[in-house]
Each structure stands twice: as structure tokens, then as C-alpha cells.
Amino acid sequence: MKRTSCTLLLLLLFHCLLAEDGYRLWLRYDKIDNNSLLQQYQSAIRSVHIAGNSPVLMNARKELLTGLQGLLDTRISDKTSLETGTLLVATYNNHETIRSLIDQKDLNTLGNEGFIIRTVNSQQKKMLIITANDDAGLLYGVFHLLRLMQTRQPIQQLSITTAPAIQHRLLNHWDNLNRTVERGYAGSSIWDWHRLPGYLDPRYTDYARANASIGINGTVLTNVNANARILSKEYLEKVAALANVFRAYHIKVYLTARFSAPVELGGLKTADPLDPQVQDWWKKKAAEIYSYVPDFGGFLVKANSEGQPGPQNYNRTHADGANMLADAVAPHGGIVMWRAFVYSSEKPDDRFKQAYDEFKPLDGKFRKNVVVQVKNGPIDFQPREPFHPLFGAMPATPLMMEFQITQEYLGFATNLVYLAPLFKECLDSDTYAKGKGTTVAKIVNGSIDNHSLSGIAGVSNIGNDINWCGHPFAQSNWYAFGRLAWTPSLDAAQIANEWIRQTFSNNPSFVNPVQEFMLASRENTVQYMTPLGLHHIMGNSHHYGPAPWTNHAQRADWDPVYYHKADTTGIGFNRTTTGSNALAQYFPEVRRQYETLSSCPDDYLLWFHRVPWSYRLSSGKTVWQALCAQYYAGVDAVRRMQQTWNGLETYVDAERYNQVKQLMAMQEQEAVWWRNACLLYFQTYSRMPLPDGYEPPNQTLEYYMNLRFPFAPGI
Ligand code: BDP
């Protein structure tokens, strides 16, 4: 009896240890289950030697030894002697053998973050080398090698040289000091401000490991709708404690600066950027911040946008505001990321146009350490948006990309939507700014206009949920963001493939179908939410679910009716010369493509054109028929995805299998909700029937219009 309960207890303990709650993300390092591959790996890496002892290198070492021990199921020792099977990790300058085996020229283009992984032969000894100019590169190289092994790639004959295309690769946390997260769907903020700096949650280290593993080198800790208190001594001590953890993973800390802080914190009468006292206040504040965090990255600023204070309160320009802050951090090597997400309720003009109209005239007027941070599209992180017309329009100013990883407009944390195709669609868009091939990616990496400053930011989807991101598959969006920030030319399929293998399983019977539905998931979501170029038709303020009927916000451009403009004569926003003429902000090649009805892709139709309900698309369907077809196809695709998942039970741990299954059931219901609500509403204008054969909506329009969500997350 006693023995049985003991065994049961042990079994339970064992189960708990193995429980896949998603906490380990893509860094699981479970034993390689293929024996011949295991042997190959074991013979390729028999010992390691890591030369140096900086904090970054010590973390690289720890990760490498933990990873190898897990994957190879044997203890790998760290030995100084070089033998066959040694994995040597050292900077070029720090190891004689590396200098004798690698040509220094090969490191010329690597900067301080790039690395080389190479199989070499030295005095008949076959070894593996990870080298770089700097320890940061070694850390990234170690993670890369572990990724190769986790994804079961051959490592016998490696020759890899890689460096990041973009300099600043940042997460933006929209986290508030009270631990709520604006547009956060994965619990509370992971920053436990109350217990900082005394208590360092181990999560901070795991957060840093995860980011370093995908090349993210900076984090903005606080919400763009900023609280000045973060700049107080009390909070700077807490920030410093986080920075100390992150520094050893080559991650810099940045903060959002509330423009009115000199008034709120400093007791000044004004925050006018041209006022010497205000300038002085920021200089002293910057010096104070650097006394706590010597490698502080700089400020991210949302100014004169959605009620935030800014230089325009004092009749100054965005450049005046940005430059003042830039001067304050410049002596310490900091940067200012000034957001271009501005639109004003006083202006009657199309919201699409406002950021361009305000910022383009300021091109060339910013200090060298300012980068203007532009959202991927001109409105706001919609399921599909055309690229922002500012990309390519400000050659004298570095422009940083802002993507949203958290799914504010893409189904929160209940919808499985893999975002790499969305990110790629934007990065690969051709702006034609300097002729054909001037892609958004080339503007952002600074290569087109020779900017030494470059950056990319992703609004984080991380919270204190045990699996970090709420939906197990939402982790893939954090992962994809990092991988694309390092190499924007990577393929969305490759990234999905890597992520699935590391996060779930290497079994092709699992990898292939999952990869397939991940890759289709964004397009499917567009179909059941906003097909044919519809945009911003979700519930006001919380943005949960459809509400195309809403027309009562304080501002017209917060209302869905502003964007779809449906009535009995037609649907869509005319942004051509006969409408708002927003298209004039693009270079002619882009403009012409969108402006001409026959060449405007269906995907963007209602972004740029207003058409009658009977307008025929190239498929021969009318707009109404195409809308119906897309909404129904989107729901069907979710159902197919559910079926696929149901067939994969044997390849997944029970915890994650069931979690995903339940979330997919919610996604199906939400997709049906979107489809029914939107079609019933638009039908009141099209006055056309649903084409034959479609399942009829199971609720009335009135039912959908009466749904209320006072406690929707993320507000
Ligand atoms: C919108 C969000 C809002 C953000 C704003 C921004 O709804 O919560 O504060 O963007 O980016 O997407 O500043």
C-alpha cells in the first residue's frame, strides 16, 4: 500500500516535471530522439572550450552547456585542450588558434554582433569554431548552433557567417506601472515593479535568454502612453536592477519619456522644448538615468498623439521636441525614437494622410541620434494594411519600423494567427523611392540612404501567463519578429518550420500540417475579419470583435463607419484623386497600381476605392458576392485547421494539445461571429441575398449589435 502511494507520488512528480506548460518557449533542449543523429552530434561535439569570462560569455557558456547536456544527454566538459570534437568559442582577438584558422577579413563585416560558425581542421583535428569580434556575437552564435541542433540540422560541415541587418532590434512593452498591459492579452506585466529592485524574478533571466536567442538587443520597458514616474529615483533603481540582468544578455534598456515630465516631476511651469530650463532639466535627468544605467539605450516618445503631451502644446514641432531629448542623451551615447503615429481630431483630413503630412516636411531636421518610428501601415496595425507612405519619403531621416506582435486587431490571444507573412508583406513592399527594388526593408535597414542608425520594434505580446504569450502559438510571433529583425529576407515558412520543431516536435507528420495552417492563418483571419481591404471595423476602444455599425465615438476616425463608408450606393474609402487623395503620398509606381481600379489588387480594393455593390471584380463576382465568399472561406479555413489539429493529438503533450484545441474552438466561434455580424450589417445596405448554399447566420444583427464587453482585456 505504502509502496503504491510512493510510486504514485513519484509518477505525479515526474509528470509535473514533464508538464509542457509552454514556459520553456523554443528553448526546450530535450534529448534528441533519433539515435543515429544523436551519435553524429555526440561525435561532432565532445568537449567545449570557451575562452573569456565576461558576463555575456558566462551566460553563453551556461546556455551552451545546458543545451548540449539536454540535447545530447551527456555531460559535456569545458576543457582548454583542443582535440577532435572540440567546440571552440572565442573572439578573434582572444584566441591564437582562431587567428590561425580564420581570415580576419571574414570578420570585417560582422560588427560587434555578427558571428561565424565553422567546421575546421587543425593539425588533423576536426573541430567546430564559433567566433566573432565581440562576446555578443559569440552569445548569438551559441544560440544559433543550439537552434541548428534543436531543428535537427547537420552540423558536421558548417560554414555560417551572419550579422544583423538592423542595428536596434527592440521589443516595445506597453506595460503600465500598475502592471496592466495596454493591448496585453497574456496576463499582467512581467515587470513586478513593487518587488523590484529587491526581488529579481527568474523570469527576467528567461526573458533575456529568449530574446537573446532570436537576436533582440533592446527592450522599452514602459507604455508609450507614458507615466513620468518611471523617471523618478525610486523607479530608476528598479530599472537599473532589470538592466543589470539584461546587460549580461547584451540587451539594453530603454524607457518611454512623457513629454510633460519636467512639469509633473520637476515642478517646472512649462515643458516647452526651447525653454533653457526645460532643456537643462532633461539634461540632468538623462545624466541621472545614466548614473543608474550606464548603457541606457534612450527614449521612446509618443507626443501629441491621442491626448499625449508634446511640443505642439507650445507651438513647437516634433523635430524641436525630439532634438531637445536627443541633445540630453547624446553625451551618453543614447538615441531618441520619436513616433510618427500622430493624427489630430481637429484636422478634418483623412487620418491615413496625417503622419506623412506632419513628418515629411521635417525630413533632415532631426539630430543624428534621432530615429523616427513609423508603424507598418498608415492607420493602425490592421489585419492587412498597405505599407506606410512615410517609408521612402524621408531620405534624410532614419526611419524605424514598428510592428505589433500583440494581436490587438487580430483576435487577441484566442486566435491562432502567425504574423510572419504580415511582417514580410510590409518589409518586401516596394516603395519605388529610389527606383524599383527600394523595399521597405531596405529603407528600414538604412542601406538605401546610408544611415548608420537603424531600428525595428515589435509591440510585445508578453505577459505573466505561464506560457508568456497567452496562446501557445502566439509565441511564434515573438520568435518570428526577432528572426526577421536579424534577417528580414528570411522566409516566413522557414521561420515557422524552425519554431515548430523547437517548440513542439521534429516529427514531419506534425511539422508539415502545422506549418501549413500557420502560414495560411493570417490570410484566413483577414478573410473572416476584414476582407477586400476593409479596415478598422472592430469594436470601438477595446477592439474586440466586429462592430462595423458603430458611429458614436468622440472622434469620427475612431468609428468603423468612417472607414468602410457603406451605404446603399456602395462601400469603401475613396483615397484616389476624386476622394481624399491619400494615394498621392506614394511614389508614382505604387500610386498608379492602387489608383487604377483594374490594377488595384482585390486585397486593397476598399482601402482605396469606393465601389457600388454590383461592381465586378476580376473573378467575375460582384463586391457583395466576393465579400460573402471571403467571410465564409475564412470560417471554413478555421474549421479545417481545427480538424487538422484534432488529428495531431499523438504528437503533442496533452497540456498544449488541449489548450490549443479549446482556443481553436473559441476562434471558430469568433470567426463565425465576425462573418455573421459583418454580412448581416452590410446586407442592410447591399440589399442582396446571401448566395445559395451558405449556412445561414444563427443570430440576428440586433443580437450582435447588443453584445457588450465592458471587461475586454487590454484596455
Ligand atoms: C493603438 C492602440 C493604443 C495605442 C496606440 C499607439 O489602440 O492603445 O496607445 O495605438 O500606438 O493601436 O500609440
Please provide a written account of the structure.
- The protein has 715 residues and is of the alpha/beta class.
- It has 3 domains: 21-161, Chitobiase/beta-hexosaminidase domain 2-like (Chitobiase, domain 2, 2-Layer Sandwich), CATH 3.30.379; 168-503, Glycosidases (TIM Barrel), CATH 3.20.20.80; 527-573 and 610-705, Alpha-Beta Complex (Alpha-d-glucuronidase, C-terminal Domain), CATH 3.90.1330.
- The chain is 38% helix and 10% strand.
- The chain has helices at 2-18, 35-44, 55-72, 96-101, 135-150, 202-213, 233-247, 261-264, 276-292, 318-329, 351-359, 420-427, 440-444, 475-486, 492-503, 508-529, 560-564, 588-595, 605-608, 623-646, 654-686, 701-705; strands at residues 47-50, 77-78, 86-91, 115-122, 125-132, 159-162, 168-172, 218-220, 252-256, 298-301, 335-339, 370-375, 399-404, 455-459.
- It has an 8-stranded parallel beta barrel.
- α20 (623-646) packs antiparallel against α21.
- The longest helix has 33 residues, at 654-686.
- The protein is globular.
- Residues 11-17 have low confidence and may be disordered.
- Residues 182-183, 224-225, 302, 306, 341, 380-381, 408 line the site of beta-D-glucopyranuronic acid.
> How many domains comprise the coordinates?
3
Q: How would you state the average pLDDT, rounded?
A: 96
CATH class (first level) name of the largest domain: Alpha Beta
Percent in helix: 25-40%
Largest beta sheet: what is the strand line-up? 7-8-9-10-11-12-13-14
Work out the helix count: 22
Question: What is the name of the CATH superfamily of the largest domain?
Answer: Glycosidases
CATH architecture of the largest domain: Alpha-Beta Barrel
Distance between the termini: 54 Å
Any idea what the radius of gyration is?
26 Å
Name every ligand kind in the structure: beta-D-glucopyranuronic acid
Question: Which percent range describes the beta-strand content?
Answer: 5-15%
CATH fold descriptor of the largest domain: TIM Barrel
Judged by helices, strands and strand pairing, the structural class is: alpha/beta
* Poorly predicted sequence stretches spanning 5 or more consecutive residues: 11-17
Q: Label the overall shape.
A: globular
- Characterize the biggest β-sheet: 8 strands, parallel, barrel
